[in-house]
Amino acid sequence: MPLPPNAAPSGPLAGLRVFDLTRVLAGPTATQMLGDLGAEVIKIEHPTRGDDTRGFAPPYLRKPSGEPSAESAYFAGVNRNKLSVTLDIARPEGQAIARQLIALSDILVENFKPGGLAKYGLDYASLKETYPGLIYCSITGFGQTGPYAPRPGYDALIQAMGGVMSLTGEPDGLPQKVGIPIADIFAGLYGTIGILAALRHRERTGQGQHIDIGMLDTHVAWLANQGMNYLATGENPPRLGNQHPNIVPYQVFATADGAIMLSIGNDPTFERFCRAFGLAHLLADERFATNAKRVENRALVTDTLTPVLKSKTTAEWIAALEALSIACGPINRLSDVFADPHVQARGMVISMQHEGVGGPIPLIANPVKLSATPPDYRIAPPTLGAHTELVLHDLLGLSHKEIAELRAKGVV
């Protein structure tokens, strides 16, 4: 199958090849980022099952007629700019083909359990001597070492074990996970950062290396101010719902017709807010005078401001606050987000022609804005095995007859 005419990469990673042994979300997030930035990504999938997320549906992508296709929206979200090659690496012939492709690759990304690829001879220890320049990134739940290393890792499990669930939710409610699989996504993005650093090292030394990304590690890393709050005090931060642990008022307030996010980040802004809305008397009360005092008197500040915010509609508050350069915003549903004129102006939704759908599909754009070498969108999320023939014939030189024989055996 020929590639689309615009498939030649233009991004900063053009000329690099990625051998992609990832599936589900964390690994594919990393490899899609590399693909968006210009790398050629060869995504290896099982000949019959493919990536697990091909079955994570409904919803499915819709055909131009409005009818659902057989392609899952979940898979499409993290698998553009990849060539899908079906290959059974459990078979000796599959392992041999894998090694031929690895020999032509710069980067290998995988998210098997630790040791899971050793039985196929595709682990880092088995490859590093033969391919000393190979950058090999492993993304797992708990990393390659430590007592939890053999355990499977799932996003909600990592959110629970990593502490964010203890910080999320209303004070008197149950702990809550974040509404998107953020532990997976962050692991993939940290993996990308590690790969880019390793590329720079290889540029200087010619040597590849192993990158060990554990989802729990990356989760702990982005505990950020809350993690530091604990390390500084030894006290577990409480759940505060939609309030900020270190800044008050910085939270959701009910309005006359809905709700608003009010973010008052410093004392001058709080003073401006109070003077504009008939609350100047609060500035003489030491409990309101500084952010530190407002944090100490969180409940009083919230109770005092709640009836004030309920006095206007959300639209009225946004107009009034924006005129004073006070940060605020509505609580948008996704329909509001994608209809937002700023989101649209920033080009955060793209359209690509999809073979399995028979028409264009919408996709969320890459948010990295590079002035000279922006992300490019060359290959729509592929149907299963769409590029097997192309890669094995054009890249490895296998004849169409040889590929047909491998297909008959179930190797590809």
Q: Give the N-to-C terminal Cα separation.
A: 15 Å
Fraction of residues in helix: 25-40%
Total number of beta strands: 13
Strand content: 15-25%
- Return residue spans where pLDDT drops below 50 for at least 5 consecutive residues: none
Count up the helices. 18
Per the principal axes of the C-alpha atoms, what is the gross shape? elongated
- Tell me about the largest β-sheet: 6 strands, parallel
- Based on secondary structure, the structural category is alpha/beta
- Tell me, rounded to a whole number, the average pLDDT: 96
Radius of gyration: 25 Å
Q: Can you list the strand order of the major beta sheet? A: 5-2-1-6-7-8
Structure description:
With 412 residues, the protein is an alpha/beta fold. It is built from 18 helices and 13 strands. β3 and β4 form a beta hairpin. The longest helix has 24 residues. It is elongated, with a radius of gyration of 25 Å. The mean pLDDT is 96.
Compact summary:
The protein is of the alpha/beta class and 412 residues long. The chain has 18 helices and 13 strands.
